[in-house]
Structures are given as structure tokens and as C-alpha cells.
Amino acid sequence: MEIEPTEEVKESPRIHRLHESVVNRIAAGEVIQRPVSAVKELVENSLDASSTSISVAVKDGGLKLIQVSDDGHGIRFEDLPILCERHTTSKLSKYEDLQSIKSMGFRGEALASMTYVGHVTVTTINPGQLHGYRVSYKDGVMEHEPKACAAVKGTQIKIENLFYNMIARRKTLQNSADDYTKIVDLLCRFAIHHIDVSFSCRKHGAARVDVHSVATPSRLNAIKSVYGLSVAQNLIKIEAADNDTSSSVFEMDGFISNSNYVAKKTTMVLFINDRLVECTVLKRAIEVVYVATLPKASKPFIYMSVILPPEHVDVNVHPTKREVSLLNQEVIVEKIQSMVESILRKSNESRTFQEQQAVEASPSVPPITKNDLYPSPSPSGSKSQKVPVHKIVRTDSSDPAGRLHAYLYNNTQKHLEKDSMLTAVRSSVRQRRNLKGTAYLTSIQELINEIDSKCHSGLLDIVRECTYVGMADDVFALLQHNTQLILANVVNLSKELMYQQALRRFAHFNAIQLSEPAPLHELIMLALKEEDLDLESNENDDLKEKIAEMNTQLLKQKAEMLEEYFCIFIDSDGNLSRLPVLLDQYTPEMDHVPEFVLCLGNDVDWEEEKTCFQSLAAALGNFYAMHPPLLPNPSGKGLEFYRKRKHGKSPQDGENSSSHVGGAIAVEDEFEHELLSEAETAWAQREWSIQHVLFPSMRLFLKPPNPMAANGTFVRVASLEKLYKIFERC
Ligand code: ADP
Ligand code: MG
Questions:
Q1: Which secondary structure element, helix H or strand E, spans residue 301, and what is its range?
Q2: Which of 147, 153, 607, 619 places its Cα 20 to 30 Å from the Cα of 691?
Q3: What is the biggest distance separating any 2 CA atoms in the chain, rounded to whole angstroms?
Q4: pTM of the predicted model, to two decimals?
């Protein structure tokens, strides 16, 4: 019998104890992952020492030198010998203290770790002393007795040659230029939370400071001085709280960006119980709201401070304390998310008006300032301060603070001149907007209010709380809500969601650019031919041509309005080239474009403003709904459709075609592979969208209308309790 040679010689490896210095170095590498982690620990120590001024100097992205100086209470002379030993701390003595710890440090690991991976020198002076002390550390111990020296109030800690003994780490970091940027970013974050402390950060030896904040009572001022006016002027205040011990207890306040803010990356500055932490779940939850609520593809700026009972936070879950784990995290995230959503929605409604007015304002009119946009806590005490964002546009025209009316008046003239060229609906909208001023697009507001008032609360609960199980067939998805199993018609649901989105995003859509402009005339002809496919007659082709022509002309006339309010772009030659984004990450099935265009011409009421918008939104809803793809579903009976037929017969010939193929002829090329894979992709994509776009968006935005309770959109299949009972009996 043959034995594999490796098995013959394999011996169990010996287990041995690592040398303590190796253990410490490994642990240190975890705590101090990069220069920025060292800076974070040092700054946190300074904050724990009640400093009011903290300055940081950095050389070579922190690899050559990191120096943090503060004006805090300093370190006692007698503590210096054990300062950098592992697990020496002044902040925690028993394990239970962790439950109520308020300081940022508590493990006594940071300074020790630094001495294992760098050269640490501490200079410190206690209040009332004539001189301070300086001492250097290596591998946790003092290298010499502390030396008396002149010192200014507080502590200065210097780390030189970080990772000098970790070649690989040093090499990777040397090649990355962004460590200084990370350090600057870190200090910006601290600076906008600890507004009673002044921070500065510079490259060693440079005159210029890259972060400079002075203590201020106003958070917005701090944000302005750190992130600039362009950020600060586009923020909205946000607050949320809950005090229900059965669900969640927390208080949150902060600032989030409005729809004028533009950035490619999300900035989320999150403090939980005054600790700078990351919470990916919360970040994603807020990003989703931005993507779906605001028209611009901008990522948000978020500053949030969340306060929880200390015993609800486990601070000890991450080596760098970067992440914390919270009791009832899901509930808290959801509450914050819905607050963000409602605030954004309000600000978006008012902005619609502000932005248009601001853009069209004549240069002599002062631009809208930050005080107009949010209630500023700045000390100037102007009257507009207390006005909530969504009320600003609705100021009474007799109110001298209603600066926006200056724009209104100017624009009335301009718009009235233009009106003659506009379509009936558009001009009526304009006039209403200009003459009444405050009644901007009441019709849209009314339609949205109707959606809200007709919302079925039971269905709303289902939509918000259900779990998507999977598709039960081409149209129904299986959902679980508490102990109920429910079938839900995704076509009806998506149609309604798209309709509601079309109204909510009114005039603020991102665009889907068609790869090639599509001529309306041809699209309409296609749709008309499809309509009477069954008749297979060509006799009324003339009539179809006429309808197509008339509709094309009509839509060309309405082009300006369609573009401005619904982002449906039709050029002067009658080509459709742009469509609105109703839900991000979702493009409608282009097979339905002809039907949609025909519907625009035939089914939209162009006479009355409100019905016009309603029917347009309904047409969009129908077009964007997640209909089953035109190609039959290949998983299941639909597969027959893709079986190759002999004699050049078209696949539409139906199911009996399988008899042509049968038995011996059934070789590998039995199927129309290209078509089949096209169908598979289409169905897989739809299912992906249903699960990852439709259901999450419905959870956030859909207000299911009352009729949905009775029209077969939701069908209760079974209660799990009953099913379990049945299984038990088996
Ligand atoms: P921890 O912060 O978890 O206690 P560290 O290793 O970061 O552990 O610091 C050890 C101790 O050194 C702290 O508990 C604190 O007493 C003291 N210390 C460190 N930095 C400072 C500072 N800048 N000012 C005053 N005391 C400090
Ligand atoms: Mg510390």
C-alpha cells in the first residue's frame, strides 16, 4: 500500500511562549496601526487632561515625528516611572468602572504601545511647580531618570521614528502620502466637537497651520472655521431623542448638509458619548436617505453627537476604540434615519423655491446668506434667526425680513413677458407662483398631501417592517411580517412608489441619458402597431401616422415644461433623449418607452395643472414599474420559449414546438443561447432590483394608499403559528 510521503514525516509543531517584547510589539502594532492612530491617542489623552489648547506638529506624515502639546493638568513626577508601562492608567481601577467611564482612555495601552514601536519623549509640568521634567521611554520603561527642565503649562509628547522596528509597516506607510491628510482630517473632526478647545495642526517647521480652530460657543462657527463657509452655510440643524426604556434611550444633535451642498465623498463626523467613533450602519442608513431624497448626486456632510446612558455603550470592542457597540443600535439608527429624512424633505420643499429665485435674481439683489438658510446661532441676533427653514419662503410679503420678496417682484415682470411663449400649464404654474408668490406649486403639494392622507397605516407597518423572502412567481413577492406570510404584488407596489417619487422629486430629478436620442414619431408608431398586433392589419396605417404626428407635435410643444418639471428632454427635432431618475440605482425597462410616449400624448390631461401633473406622474409610474420582462421567465415553463425550432420558425410559435425537436435531435444546441442568456440576465436583474432597490426604498418612502388593502396587492397566505401547528401534527 502506498503512503503519501508528506504524511510520513509530518510532526506536530512545538508550541512555545513568545518573548514578552514580541508580544508587546504585536499588541502595539494593533493599537497604533498608523501615525494617525498615535495622534488620536495623544490628543485624547490631552482632552482627558482637561486641556483648552492642543497643538500638533508632524514630520514626514508622522513617521519622523509626531508632537502633541497641551495645556492640561500634566503628569505627576512620581507617576513618570510607570507612565509607559502596559496597563497603567489613571482613569480606571475596577472593571465595573468601564460601565460609566467618561474619559476617552481607560486601558493604559496607548503610551506603552508607542514606546514599543517608536521613541517617546515626555515633557510635563504640574500646576504650581517651578520647573517640569523630561524623560524618554523605550519598550515601556524609562531610559533614564527624569531630568528637570523649563516647561510651559501642560504636557508635550514626542514620538520619533515611528515603526522604526517594523520594516514592512514602515515601507507601506512611506509610500502612502496621505497620512498627513488623515491627521489633518482627524483634528478637523475633534475641533468641531470639542468647541471649547482650540486645536492646531501643522507640518513640523512650517509657518502655515493646516487646522486652526479657536474655542467658540457656536458649533456652526467652529464648522465654518474648520471646513469653510461653503460647508457651514449649507447645513441644517438636526435633533432627535427617545426616552423609552423598552426601545431606546438617546439624545442626538448635529448638523446635516442640505441639497445645495456638493461633495463626492460622505463626511460623517460621529461622536458617541463624546468619543469619536465610526458607525458604518448609521452612515449607510443616512446615505440611503440622501440618495433617495435629494436630486443632486451629492454625498452628505454629517456631524452628529449622540449621547446614551454610559451603560448602553460597550467601548471596549475595538483595539483602537474606533468602533463601539450600542444597545438597541437598530432602533436608534432607524429613528435617526427617519429624522434625517423628514428634515431633508422639508428643506427640499422650501429650497425648490429659494434656489430658483436665487438663480434668477438680478445682480443688485444681495445673495441669500447663510442666515436665510438656517437658524444661525451666531451672536448677531438678526430677526431671521429663529425662522425654521421650511417657513422662510412663506414669509408674509409685508414682513420687512422677507428679503426673498425682492426677487419675487423682479421676477414677476420677467416671467410675465416670457409667459406668452409657454404652454398653458407652465404659464398657469408660473403665474400662480409669481402672483401669489407663496403658493408655489400648490398643486404638487396637494397631490403629496393626498398621498399622505390616504395612507393605510396597517399596510405602512407591513411595508416598513417586513422581511423580503423571495419572489413567489413573476409578479408576487413573498414577505414575512411578524408571524404572517404575505404575498405582495411588486408591479402594483413599484408603480405606486414610482408615482409618489415622481411627485416628491418634482423639478429635482437627476437625468438618465439615453445612449441615442429616440425619435418620438417612430416610438409612437411602434406603440400603436403593438397595440393592434392581434388585428394584424395594415389598413389604418395612415391613421396611425396621423396620430403619431399629432402627438409628436403636442409633446414638442410641451417640451419645456416636461424638461423643467419632469426631466423628460425632447429636442426641437422631436427626439427623446433624457428621462428622470425616480429611484437611484434604477433604470426602467427601455422596452416600455414606446408605450410611455404614446401614453404622454394620449392619456395625460394637459389642460388643468393638478390633473396634468398627476397623470404625468402616473404615466411615469407605469413606465418605471417593475413589470415582468417581456421575454418569458426561463426558470420554469418559460424555458420552452427558448428551445430552437426547425424550419426557421419564430420562437413565438408556441409550446408545441417541442414536439419538433424531441428525442434524437435534442443535441447540445437545443436552445437559443443568446436569447436565453439575455432573458436570464433580465430576470436576474429585476429580482436584484426588487430586493435591493424596491423593498428598501418602499420601506423609506412608500405610503401605501387605502385601496391597496382590498385590491389584491397584498394577500395574506398564512400565519407562521398555524403552519407550525400543522407541522407539529405531522
Ligand atoms: P489611558 O489613556 O488609557 O489611561 P495612556 O497610555 O493613553 O492610557 O495614558 C496613560 C496615563 O498617562 C493616562 O491615564 C494619564 O494619566 C497619563 N497621561 C497621558 N497623556 C497625558 C497628558 N497629555 N496629560 C496628562 N496626563 C497624561
Ligand atoms: Mg489614552
A1: strand 301-307
A2: 619
A3: 108
A4: 0.53
